[in-house]
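Model: You mentioned two targets. I'll fold them one after the other.
Researcher: Yes, keep them separate.
Model: Target one:
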Amino acid sequence: MTKCGAFRRFALGVEALLLLCSTLTPGAQQNRASPQAHPPPVSEALAEAQSSLEHGNADEAIRILSSYLQARPQDSAGRTLLAQAYASIGENERAEEVLQGVLQIAPNDSIALAALGEIYEREGHPEKAEPLLANAAKINRDDPRIRMEWAVALVHLHKYAEAQSALAGLSPPSERDERIAFHRLQASVALGLGNAPTAASEMEKALALEPADHGLALATATAELQAKNWQRAASLAEPLFSETHNLQAGLVSLEAELDMHSDFHQTLELLRATQLASSKELELHQRVAELLISNEKYSESIEELSRAANLDPERADLEFDLALAQFRAGRLDDALASAEKCKALGDNADLEDLIGDIQETRGDNLAAVKGYQAAVELAPNEERYRLSLAVELIRHSSFEPAKVVLKQGEELQPESWRIQLALGMVEHFGGTDEGATKYLLRAAELAPEPQVALQYLGDIQLDRAPPDPAAVAKLCEYSDGQPKEGDIQYYCGAVLFRRDHVTGDKTHAAEILRRLHASVALLPKDDAAPHCQLGKAYRWLERWPEALRESEICSRLDPGSAEAHYRLAQIYEHVGQPEKQRKEIKLYEAASTRLADENARRQATMKAFLYTMQKEAPDRQ
């Protein structure tokens, strides 16, 4: 197959072969006219023009074809080749005009359709190219090159499923360059469909055909990185970076090394030492910082962000990123200084929220509250800033002010499950479990994934006597719909036991035991809670061997629980093991002295809640 310079376009970074060069000759043969003295015979004229074009002499090809078409103006093959010649010297408008004329005469000319589509594609208009190529492929379904061109346009439009259909059934071409382009196209489609391993496999096939090609090696390394084959990505990118100093290869090397948790410092230093224009240097430092931060290498990212900020000191976003990296690296004073510098360039809610985080970590809770309040004032309709302020107030037991902040948020966003969750926990921490239950039930109704709200709801019901009927019903309803969720199976069984233990009703004993045993099977083996509840339930049912077994497991898994030791001592007394009873009494007394006060469990719940809210808050930095 012949290569041409006209209608060039890059498919996945590699110059593809031109459809026109491979398809015009058959068309010319079909349009051959009777030999004449002037102009030359059809085959000779077209062959001569084709040869001139292939040798880079487009002007000569245009002269031959112009003369030829004066006598044969209806010859679509000649016109199409003329359009190719115009395109090869950058005269796309004339090429388009010629091809439009061909299509007026022969609207189903697949070669002209494909050629015009190629021009539009090369000009960056895949939306104009795609229908032309689709029509060409429909007319000439057996031409694999047209189908490939159509698939390329579809890829450019991010229509990957359609591109996959366009390529369905095609075998790799026999010619090497076309074969490489085919595998790269298949890789692009696979990656667009989210199939990174297949994309990497296709790129490896392309690379095997031209292993010395640096561009192929880099593209393959990038595909292997997407497929999380980090060792292979590094083995391709590292020597390429060392040999060529290609920045993209260096970035792929750095990302692969970070993902493998291997030593990345040499690659990092080489990237830092690269001499670039200031705009490119800033972009490089930002990209390197992004990779480092995504792998929690905050200290190393600070130098990159500092360099970037120095290159453009008026960029507030760079100062913000620097302050955030310094905060996460524990350099709190530096973080505060960078945040203040950023504030001088322009204040916003994100920045004030970050200042609140920095001040809280520095131990200045008053300054932290001011920061969070400023964020709320700057963006009163943004849920996350109001939650940051509420969490800060809760952290320091300012429950009433936290409730005021959250109630304001509820008025603005009545459908926010996070605000309902926070309101519920504020009620709980303030000692009002009835109100807490109401809010948590509402949060569970609103949340797309209600497990978090239901777990807090379950914890609260385990302290109530009896638990709220609506809460019991909600927990067990959800557990019935999610039989593989061990936490919710546990809470349902535990609150059912709590309810029936208070009333003395043992008619649901089988269901309670079934759910608690299910939670044992589903939860981690070191989770004491379901064994502790089973110990209580079996003791209540006076099934002493099972009560002893489960209570011993409970005590072993949670040796700091005073309640576990006390219950086990009672069971040992009942089964006639006084020595073990006395030992458990001593352990109970020791564990009791370690309890700071009766609110120890509530304090633990508060810490867990604060962590949850920081983790669950939307768009948290």
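Model: Target two:
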Amino acid sequence: MKLMIDNLQGLGALDYTAWIDATVAARIERTLNEPGRLCFSLAADESGFVLPLSEARVTLAKENGELLFTGYLNESPAREYLGWGEKGPVYRYDLVAESDEVLLDQKALPNRAPFVARSAGSALRQLAVDLLPGGFDTSAVEDVDILTSYRVNTQKKFSAHAGEIAVAARASYRAMNDALVFTPVGKATYDIRESDAAFSPSRLKLTRPGCAVNDVTVIGLEEPQAYVRDYFVGDGLSLRFYLSQTPFQQSRGAFINEKYQDATLDPATWVVSDPQSAVSVAAQTLEVNGGTGQSGETSVSFVEQIEMGGAIKLQHGDVNFSSASRGVIGGLYAGGVSASCLAGFQITPNGSKSNIQAVVNGSVTGPVVTTTAGHRYVFTTYLYSMEVYRSGETYHSAVHPAGDGLGGATKPADVRIVLEVQEINPADPHTLVAPATVLYDDVMTNIADYCTYALVNAASMYCSIAYTYAAHISLAEIRTALPNSPYVTQLVGSLSDGGECRIASSTTLDFYPQYVPPLNTLIVASYRGSGRAVAEVVNPESIASISNEIDDGVRGIVRVMESPSARTEEDCENAALAILDHAADEAWGGSYETWSDFLPGQATDIFPGDAVSVDVPSQAAAFTAIVRKVNIEVVDPANDRGLYNIEFANDSAQPLSYQDSASGTGISLQDAAARLTNDQVGNYYLPSLTSAQVTQVTSTTVLVDLGISPANGCGVEVRPHDFGWGAANDRNLVGRFNTRTFNLARLARTQTYFLRLYDASSPARYSRYAAALHVDYPL
């Protein structure tokens, strides 16, 4: 073998093979989805010996050039005096090198938006490019599977993120020779067979850890639960109204906060298509001067897709038009940037000026605002959806590998879109706080799950943009209506940002004094309640196979899902299924030691993430497992021979595709979920009544419209509390109905009704989440 070290001082790589200390075998340590290490010692006197420096480049290769390790010294060598040799004192130098990704680990990741609906391989490639553009060959990075959402933590190293991404996709990564490799686990399989002539039975150690598990409870994050609508009436004086539940809280951090302070657009935020060099950054503004004349060819787009769920504010900037323009500002597209804009601001020429109008589903609609020279325009889009997450997380196992995971289903949703523009006259300070002009305010049904956001789609645009901001906002849609007038959306936020009201605490809605609701104003607050995501799933067949006269056969565990996270109850169910995929199977683990000449399956090398197929009848062992660690003792470097110790385990012994932990989280009785069998997951619950609403209130009755007509054999159950559901319990029952509309008795000023669908099954199935209708009207 050859040991080459380059101190990166212009002398190139030097051959240190002759100085390897033969009394201390070099050791290569490889661990699944972690950086590799090379530990070795050099023995030399000072004459002719160049002491390796910290961060020197190290390669260990066979005589034929096949690489075993490439990396960098992570610290200065430790020195030990061995005695006096022919040429003077002799020292041993102990060195440790880490594999190539140490170059990436030494750099801080940029603060970027979460990856959304990206492949795992694409996310890994992007992180490498963000840290060291062109530094690594990523051609061997496969896409593997789709990540629903992955948030980059700038406090973590690249290797930590690479490991998490690999776990989420059931993949393995490694860095070697300035290249990243990312593949599904088990892509290469090697046989360990008792019948092979080179098999060494004394070097094989097998274990059978753990016991069967057939009842799994998974605890996830706080999730959106009940579909709540609170109804109030203004008295002309009151500014504060009390919500019936605590609204679900989304992350409030901005995912775009661009001030255009650099000389070029940040590639971690923007993707630019600019064949005619019409886009530039100057004087802390984004300048757009021209275009090809065709929609979609000159554009500035957000690097990630936007999940069309929850509540989002997109402020496309303070825009100054220098000439008549054509194009779209702040466009959302169900796919690539094109002429078919889902929602945005259409800009068209009007003599030397421009017209601004809402564009929805590719067609202009609503009022027209004509630009004035010297004026600035602030464009804002608000999105409100009762569905916070449009796609579930995906969980893997050996039964459900990459590309065939559990979960990941998309959820249809309606989204209210509000498009407004504020015109600012620099000569009139009052225009800074004047109400914006609403160009569009309506619900788009069954909207796309994810959209491309293009700040600018310039056919021929001449403008400057001072800033762009996007963030999740309070998940509460507030609508008001004067008597005999249509409802309008009231913006929730700070007064300085144009908000008319705010969620002042967890359960209060406060209007600002200048926006006090007039007498008899109808107010509707729509939001999602919150609670802990929990699911319990059992395998009845496994329970029955173990049960006996004194044991019911239940083997249960409670786990907190860490990666992939469990954002909803559905995610918890799918995570439980992934655990149950192997929980009842035989657990196998072990290690096999062999010389490099006799590696299983005639392999020349083995890496963590490869699979081994073990067939040893004398130990009743026939299973396939994934290699978790590989240690190589280089005991005979002169003859390219090393002693491999290969550690492996199957998923029953050591879960591979998720990270969980023992629960330290208490589960309240209210959070406890139904106990489902593995066959019931995905088809147990009926749809939730997401469109249920109150349409009329009198002093004695409340008229409810479900938004759908119950199917034959189905009905809706109404209760004053969100518990006690079931045909056997009539104690807190308001009523059962099988029509779309019905009247409920109103007995007090403030009253709440919880509604769930049920069917004719025995026992009856119900909606997963309740619809909560809360009325606070004077009697």
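Researcher: Noted. Anything on target two?
Model: The two ends are 90 Å apart (CA to CA).
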